[in-house]
Amino acid sequence: MNLDSAETVHSDLEIQQDKHTGRKTTHKRIGRYTLTRELGRGAFATVYKALDSHGSKFAIKQIAKARLTPKQYKALKEEVRVMHAMENENSIKMYGVMQSQKNYYLVTEYCSGGDLDRLRGKQLKECTVQMIIHQLSKALKILVDHNIMHRDLKLNNLLLSSKGAGAVVKLADFGLARQLRGAEYAKTFCGTPLYMAPEVLAGEEYDLKADLWSIGVLLYLFLTGHFPFQAATPHKLLVELNHAIVKFPHDVQISDCCLQLMKRLLQVDPEKRIDWKEYFEHPFVKSAPEAYQKAFAELPKGPAATPQIDPPAVKPAEEAKLPLPELCCFPKDPRSNSRPETTCV
How many CB atoms lie within 10 A of CB 136? Predict the structure, then answer.
């Protein structure tokens, strides 16, 4: 399954009439799929909800060929390759790749539960957070086993398979994923700044440990409802990280087990950050949610202490020398409903 051998399909318009109201609507049809409504839109792609001829639901990502640079085409091929390799119940399943004269189409499973961005600003119970992290980590284990970085772990890229109880957490959007060869490092500034590891923000080389910082941010977000560090620009965020203190609201009640993991994830120095092997073996990550919930009542917990994070290994350069643009995707108000945008330069 790859772009070079993508099935060629024709696109046309389909007129449907409501049986009850008689109202006619026009939908785009791609091969055997009918696009029913837009789910999301980015700079180079639009995601639609779609139905096949049997009424089964799918999500289709439409990418305009004309907007793809050679580098972006290469990244799209990598996204398809990674998704094809992600045979895991906690990652979005890909069903096929198609192309028309103007677009590429990635056909994936549809998650009716939506993404977890709607939880931003809310404080979740620790057992609920542990269940989310446990399921997410099953998908991350596949990536790590293949030496692949996701590079855009955030609330918007965590989906729920369905609404209500029993929903499964699904990792989505592998558009920035990259496989490292051997001891290779990456240096591309990409991802969503408020979730980015300090070494990525500083324009330094980084490896798979950058994703561990993003997990720490997610963990803090789930428990407190806001980001551990906030600033108006990447440079100011790096200055903020120099203080290296994660503060918790007084009303946040978490166990020592959870607090210890968060402290090890939010280490500014990647050498002092927990490694992937230790992460997957950590009780907060490894424990089955049912077992963790049962044991949670006996875990020592209380108002979260303020853990001191070790001094940063990267020092923010002068703003004029930073290889980063001024970004407006940092919410000025932590309660803002604006959605952090993904950036890749």
Answer: 22
Q: How far apart are CA 41 and CA 58, in angstroms?
A: 16
DSSP state of 318: -
Q: How far apart are alpha carbons 12 and 33 in whole angstroms?
A: 11
Residue 67, exposed/middle/buried by CB under 10 A (0-12, 13-18, 19+)? exposed
**Positive or negative: CA dihedral 119, 209, 89, 31:** positive
Domains and CATH numbers, the chain: 3-109 (3.30.200.20), 116-344 (1.10.510.10)
pLDDT per residue over 322-332, tens digit each?
A: 222 222 222 32
pLDDT category at 16 given cuts 50, 70, 90 is: low
| pTM above threshold 0.90 | no
Whether 260 and 325 have beta carbons less than 8 Å apart is answered as no
Are the C-beta atoms of residues 172 and 159 closer than 8 Å to each other?
yes
Q: Number of helices (H) and strands (E), helices first, in the chain?
A: 9, 16
What does the pLDDT look like over 141-185, one tens digit per residue? 999 999 999 999 999 999 999 998 889 999 999 999 999 988 889
Catalytic residues: 152
